[in-house]
Specification:
Blueprint: H1 2-15, E1 23-35, E2 48-61, E3 66-77, E4 85-97, E5 100-107, E6 140-149, E7 152-159, E8 186-187, E9 197-206, E10 209-219, E11 224-229, E12 235-241, E13 243-255, E14 258-268, E15 277-293, E16 297-308, E17 320-329, E18 337-345, E19 351-360, E20 365-375, E21 391-399
């Protein structure tokens, strides 16, 4: 914990020499997560609170057509030492030269259009101790060149260092059983985390269509697991990171009130007992009813199908599922909005219920609510260990 505070202080002081010309912003928040049932496994704790801090420093060099961004992140958790962590979300220098944009440092890059999962999003590693939805990402070291043309944007990524996925510790909730021990990690590459990955992407908008094609070659961001033992002799799961290739496509079409969405990947190079390659697809649509209540509230209907051709051998719990959701946007001064979602496994009775909502309380304060319920999860499902981890979470955030 002391090391975390020391590193934050060093990073803060390192940027202070530019403070006279800087733009400072960021957020500070407190989070409380209440579980509806007692913990299922020995060592796990109950209700949980944490605080986080994410400042952002931005400086633009007007004469050089360049900019610098620094976004550190730190969370201190009440129970789980693995969730108390520090990361640099961004530490990026950007240089613009006509149709070229150079980006050097640590960055977050997002690819994808669907709601329930983002198959094509592979540049950044998932920071899974933040939330089970996989939306939070670790900063990725990279060299990125973007070439803007009339026929689309071409992105080239050189990724010289790999970030391991974070997982809840033995005391944490929303963890597997046995728990995942990251102190022992295996790589297919002899270079381990220093293996140089690369990726390419083309993105273009044609009338109502937004299209992206991508290719990735390097260390998989999604590990498989093998059985091992920890220092106490207990059975644990150890992550294994294979070298893979992935081809991805994402498409979104906008037709008045309709949004049509598709993400699909082909991934190869996977080791272990399952298939060495697979195809996965998430496809769906969203229709928005405008000014439904009080001539202001918009309601969106979301429907998506999730498929993985590995079936029961998939490393994802969503191999044949359907997602349905209701999105509410009140269009008020407080920017109130909510998303209710249900994901149903078509091979069994497993269901996941989700709620995400937010509302501004003032110019600087915002309240966010999140809830998840896991129902009828069978023993052979990857989410079975979460069956007693239904929770309601409230987060109060101060923006500056």
């Amino acid at each position: 914990m002391i090391k975390i505070f020391r590193l934050v202080a060093v990073l803060w002081l390192a940027s202070s020499s530019l403070v006279y010309s800087a733009e400072w912003s960021g957020q500070l928040g407190i989070e409380s997560r209440a579980f509806t049932e007692t913990a299922a496994y020995a060592g796990q704790q109950g209700n949980n609170s944490s605080i986080f801090f994410q400042p952002e420093f931005y400086h633009e060099f007007e004469t050089a057509n360049a900019s610098f961004t620094f976004v550190p992140f730190v969370r201190l958790d009440q129970h789980d030492d693995e969730r108390s962590h520090l990361d640099i979300r961004e530490l990026t220098w950007v240089k613009v030269q006509n149709d070229l944009e150079w980006r050097l440092g640590l960055r977050k890059v997002f690819w994808g259009v669907t709601e329930s999962q983002h198959l094509v999003d592979i540049i950044n590693q998932t920071d899974s101790v933040e939330s089970p939805d996989g939306e939070a990402k670790l900063g990725q070291p990279m060299v990125n060149l973007s070439w803007l043309t009339d026929t689309g944007t071409f992105d080239f990524f050189l990724l010289p260092y790999f970030r391991e996925r974070t997982f809840a510790g033995k005391a944490g909730r929303l963890r597997s059983q046995p728990y995942i021990d990251t102190s022992t990690t295996f790589y297919e590459s002899a270079d381990k985390e220093k293996h140089i990955d690369y990726a390419l992407r083309w993105a273009h908008s044609i009338d109502e269509w937004d299209i992206g094609l991508s290719y990735f070659n390097g260390t998989s961001r999604s590990p498989r697991f093998i059985s091992g033992t920890d220092a106490a002799g207990s059975t644990v799961l150890n992550p294994v990171y294979d070298l893979i290739e992935q081809i991805g496509v994402d498409v979104q079409a906008t037709f008045n009130s309709w949004l049509w969405k598709l993400e699909s990947i082909h991934r190869s190079g996977i080791r272990g007992n399952g298939p060495s390659s697979f195809v996965a697809v998430t496809a769906g649509l969203e229709y928005t009813f405008y000014s439904v209540i009080g001539e202001a509230t918009d309601i969106g209907l979301v429907m998506e199908y999730l498929y993985d051709d590995r079936g029961g051998q998939a490393s994802s719990p969503f191999q044949k599922d359907i997602m349905a959701g209701l999105r509410f946007n009140l269009n008020d001064e407080q920017s109130s909005e909510a998303l209710l979602g249900v994901i149903k496994d078509l091979d069994n009775d497993a269901v996941i219920y989700t709620l995400e909502a937010s509302r501004r309380l003032s110019e600087n304060f915002k309240l966010l609510l999140e809830a998840r319920k896991y129902s009828n999860i069978p023993l052979n499902d990857l989410l079975h260990s979460y069956l007693r981890d239904d929770y309601i979470q409230a987060e109060l955030v101060y923006y500056f």
